[in-house]
Specification:
- This protein is mostly helical.
- It has one domain.
- The longest helix is centred in the last third of the chain and has 35 residues.
- It starts with a helix and ends with a helix.
């Protein structure tokens, strides 16, 4: 997921350099959403991992 976020971020940068502001804004918002989904899933797995290892 982090790779997808980075890919959309790079697309947004390239589109912004060439002046395609609509495409750049769309790609940046997609990258932001995917990144935050990644962070939430990572935190969820971190909490679950800590609780599982704490029981043993």
């Amino acid at each position: 997921m982090l790779k997808w976020s980075l890919a959309f971020f790079l697309i947004a940068i390239v589109a912004a350099i060439f002046g395609f502001t609509g495409i750049a804004a769309g790609a940046a918002s997609i990258a932001k959403v995917i990144f935050f989904i990644f962070v939430v899933l990572w935190l969820l797995l971190l909490v679950l991992g800590v609780t599982i290892f704490k029981k043993n």
